[in-house]
Amino acid sequence: MPNVVALYFTLRTYPCLWCLILGTAMHLPKHQRGEAQKRTLDGLREHLREFKDKGRGDLKKAKSFFNVIYEPLLEIPIDQVS
User: What is the pTM of this model?
Assistant: First the structure.
């Protein structure tokens, strides 16, 4: 099945669709972990470009590019996905 949201979830380093929080910080209360940067379609495109160019598409390096390894199948702004 295609990955609609473009993320590689099995690595779990950056598992959130909406932000760039580390998986290890997700269990912490919000006041302890702070604000995480929001994901955007432009950000997904940029991280994918870097994954392909700098990471050479190596899945072992996906966490260095916020786990973005595919293009989104749908061009829907992330803040409109629920």
Answer: 0.78
